[in-house]
UniProtKB/TrEMBL annotation:
Keyword Membrane: yes
Name of this protein: NADH dehydrogenase
Transmembrane segments: 63-85
Superkingdom of this protein's organism: Archaea
InterPro entries to which the protein is assigned, alphabetical: DsrE2-like, DsrEFH-like
Length: 195
């Protein structure tokens, strides 16, 4: 009685076109590494801030929140539109004013605050407090935030509306960003703020 040891089609024997076990194991390892790499950032929290104000007192909140969140490991995007663009503009950011009219916490009554030149006076008062308290300037906060990886986006429509030159913004600011991009960023963020 003879035993036939030849393999028939359908057996587990490798064919010329099929990969070997070692090749399959290597491919599985590659795929596992790629999956680990692709999902490694899944634990990173995201914060999206929309900044619309350009006064001295309103430039601080988005910058402080952005830099603090970045320090805690958040991926942060600040989309600036309308007067919020002024904090990203190299020249305008150095001359942000503090409006005294309609600000109930200002130590100046509205009747006095409405006088010509009062915004300049209240701005100087705030700048003195900033200096006396050794608080970072807008420029320092912006540069620190950029160094920490915060992405500052300047609204393209507002750049055109205000007739700003894209070259006048701080290095590192992303220009030409539209509302659709901002909305997509907010949709993906864990925290969304309008300041």
């Amino acid at each position: 009685m003879s035993t036939d040891t030849s393999e028939t089609p359908g057996d587990d024997a490798p064919t010329e076109d099929a990969p070997s076990r070692a090749e399959l194991a290597a491919r599985v390892d590659e795929l596992e590494d790629a999956l680990a790499e692709a999902t490694a950032d899944d634990d990173t929290k995201k914060m999206s801030i929309i900044a619309t104000k350009g006064t001295l007192d309103m430039a601080y909140p988005p910058l402080i929140l952005a830099s603090t969140a970045a320090a805690f490991g958040y991926e942060v995007t600040v989309f600036t539109t309308f007067w919020g663009l002024d904090m990203l503009h190299e020249e305008r950011s150095k001359n942000l004013q503090l409006s005294s009219v309609g600000n109930p916490n200002m130590p100046v009554p509205n009747a006095v605050a409405a006088l010509p030149g009062m915004d300049r006076v209240t701005t100087k008062m705030m700048e003195k407090r900033i200096t006396d308290n050794d608080t970072a300037t807008i420029e320092e906060l912006l540069e620190t935030s950029l160094e920490m990886g915060v992405e500052f986006q300047a609204c393209q429509m507002t750049i055109e509306l205000m007739d700003y030159d894209e070259d006048d913004f701080y290095d590192g600011v992303t220009t030409g960003v539209g509302a659709a991009t901002a909305i997509q960023d907010m949709a993906e963020a864990d925290i969304q703020l309008l300041v």
